[in-house]
Amino acid sequence: MARGGNRKRLEPAAVAVEWKLRLRTAGLVLASAGAVAAAAGGCWQGYRFLTSGQPLRIREVRFTGQRHASEQDLAEAATVRRGDNLLRADLGQLERAVAKVPWVKRAEAHRRFPAAVEVRIEEHEPAALVELSGLYLVSADGEVFKRAAPGDGLDLPVVTGISREDFVQRPAETKPQLAGALALARAYAQAGLAESAPISEIHLEADQGVTLYVGGDGTEVRLGTGDLPQKLNRLQKVLGALAATGSRPQVLHLDNRAHPSWVTIRLAGANVPRAQGPAGEPASGRAGASSGRLARPPL
Which of 48, 90, 180, 250 has a Cα-to-Cα distance from 284 of 20 to 30 A? Predict the structure, then answer.
């Protein structure tokens, strides 16, 4: 009976302790919630300050690395402007927009704190012009990237023989042809030929192959198809021999399919037809003897 009575007397005290604990816990929870709310409010104010305040307003959008693309064209294409917020600026969109400027191959944008955006420009490297119902610039990797303009100030070989219609409708056929012409121009330069007889035109024909027009006199060099490295080597020797004698060639034939190692030459202003065989063969026995062309022996 005594124990039961004590338990009854202790229950109110236990209840009071329990309520105190509950109130203390609730106070801690409310205090924490208040702190979180205050922190959230502070974060929100900080976010608003950073994304709409004056300190991070863009004061400059600058471009670096360009040589041909104009500052005005780049600025007009840019989707980020002065006064925009630095943190909210969409740099990916900016890069894509600037890359549409004709000279630009690639654009890379970076934030520069406290208040600038820098766009690094990588331009196309023009390697030639291509005639497509108008002259267009083509890069070393074969990309036609811009219509040529008088202000471009470039002296480049012109690739002809590809129609605009074929280029647009049959790119699987014409792009390898264009790439081949550019590779030929590189090989020609690497052989040291471009210094004395720079290429002015590379003409492509499906059946006849490649014809070059080189030098100040526009000498016609018919390379035909196949064995181009060997033909360039023979061409180098022929041009050197002609220069040593002061002769000016009008047409050089390196496209003899029956005798690939032969070079036939038509000299500028030649009035008397002459020909020479590979081993003292009479002139009358050589093709071209009646047309004013000199047939050189194998090189």
Answer: 250
Token duo for residue 5: 């009575």
Superfamily of segment(s) 60-123: membrane protein fhac (3.10.20.310)
Beta strand 209-214 pairing with 249-253: unpaired
- Percentage of the chain beyond pLDDT 70 is 72
Cα–Cα distance, 42 to 127 (Å, whole number):
58
pTM (two decimals):
0.71
Look at residue 151 in the predicted model and tell me its pLDDT: 80
Among candidate residues 172, 226, 225, 181, the one with its CA nearest the CA of residue 201: 181
β-strand partners of 126: 139
**In 3D, which of 189, 188, 166, 190 has the Cα closest to residue 178?**
166
Alpha helices, DSSP H, located in the chain? 2-52, 71-77, 91-98, 164-169, 171-190, 228-245
Distances (CA, A) of 141 to 126, 148, 191, 223, 239: 9, 17, 20, 23, 29
- Range scoring the smallest mean pLDDT among 31-35, 110-114, 128-132, 223-227: 31-35
pLDDT of the residue at 142: 92
Question: Would you state the pLDDT for residue 11?
Answer: 63
